[in-house]
Amino acid sequence: MSERLPIYLDYAATTPLDPRVAEAMIECLHTSELQGNPSSMGHEYGRRARARVEQARAQVAAAINARPASIVWTSGATESNNLALLGAARFHADRGKHIVSSRTEHKAVLDALKQLEAEGFSVTYLKPASDGIVTVEQVRDALRDDTQLVSLMHVNNEIGVIQDVGAVGRLCRERGVLLHVDAAQSAGKVSIDVEEMGVDLLSLTAHKVYGPKGIGALYLRRNPPVGLRPLMFGGGQELGLRSGTLPTHQIVGMGVAFEIAEREREADVVRIRALRERLWAGISKLRNVELNGDPERRVCSVLNVSFHGVEGESLQYALADLAVSTGSACASASETPSYVLRALGRSDHVAQSSLRFSLGRFTTEAEIDAAIVSVTQAVERLRSIAPKNTGE
Amino acid sequence: MHYSPLVERHFATPCNVGQLASGSDVLTARAGSQDRGVEILLSARVEHDRIVALNHRVYGCPHSIAAASWLTERLTGATLQDLARWTWREAATALEVPPEKWGRLLVLEDAVRALEKNWRSRPSNHAETA
Q1: How many whole angstroms separate alpha carbon B16 and alpha carbon A162?
Q2: Which of A232, A270, A332, A384 is most buried, by CB atoms within 10 Å?
Q3: Cis ω on the peptide bond leading into residue A68 (within 30° of 0)?
Q4: Do B60 and A311 touch (CB under 8 A)?
Q5: Which one, of B59, B68, B27, B64, lies nearest residue B46 by Cα?
Q6: pTM for this structure?
Q7: Residue B59 is nearest to which of A318, A348, A386, comparing CB atoms?
């Protein structure tokens, strides 16, 4: 292993902190007037901290065209997904105990749904087409009289495809069914308008948007209000939906991160998409490579590629100078092939021979060019030592 | 995933890669498949009662690649009896292969067993042992 750090192409796992975000957080930590508990409204320390928390709430709300009062702070997208799904399903159990979702959701959704199944709910997991898209017709066909909730991710974390959440939102409104959207991967890259999309619950996290780890938010429609049963009990913060002392510096970091992400989104998307296209143009010169997911309806930053004839772990090991993911980062510690790629119809060994490259705000053209060279050399070397298919 | 220094070395610079040109003194054996995650092709040149050259091709994880390369060094000079005695555990120990990867080494042993079988079934071998 060289002493130089590898080129970071794993922005979908987490993004580095934007220096402007770090500066705002450090100011919070250094400033004694912000040391109060934001819930201690009886004195100035608490009120000043609260003002910063509310400023951040407004920044996050503005990024998704929501009212600030509809934002509930959480520890990240996993908690937001759990609070949305478990909280809504349990609260509205009298409406019905059927939920519709898809096979390619993040584990934080799938495992929360498994918990609900253990509690007596039934879940329909839609199978996307080989391009990764779940159609509104599939959702319509899956709805039943007792369906109370649909949960669909906006952008898939492994393959980057964008689901037509707006169309599903309109359908859900017509049918009086709640819609939850996991937007962890879309914030800052794709326009999110909860009003236009007809979303009732939406999960967000800061650390995919150049903010800090450990802070997230759940958008909860307030008009008409969506009922939710809390998962945590204690001080009654966040209108009783999420007890726990609010971490001012984390929240301020998320607010600034979302404000920057929305302000710079269009410019970022154009630049990052061009870099991704450059990477694909270089990689696709290798024979027997395959792009996973719809080639058009995809987020600007993600490129998931299957390299036929190359074993995935060896490819990742050979690419020690690149920080990339096999499958999703959350699941890649195991040898189990990516369930997302399996759901798209890829075989186990093709799924294992796939890499996710994810680019971001700080990726440079020089890094992409170096990545193309590394990938080309590694793939060609590993293929050169493999048995040929011709039955040597 | 832990990779020992020996795995790192053989992965970076595998030994004896390729296939020996076919001939009456060359044996080949194949085991595994890409679908199963490991595929190994061995080719050995046998002179008198010993392997004088052993080459390989391999598809697999870093441990599999390193083990196949290491094996070609280990079994060059081996007799038929040495081949028969060889088991995957020797590679596991030498390369410090973690238990979750031992199944991959069984494919390597399958390739060695196939090579042994082919050696035993050679006409010249029948003549020698008759």
Answers
A1: 47
A2: A332
A3: no
A4: yes
A5: B27
A6: 0.91
A7: A386
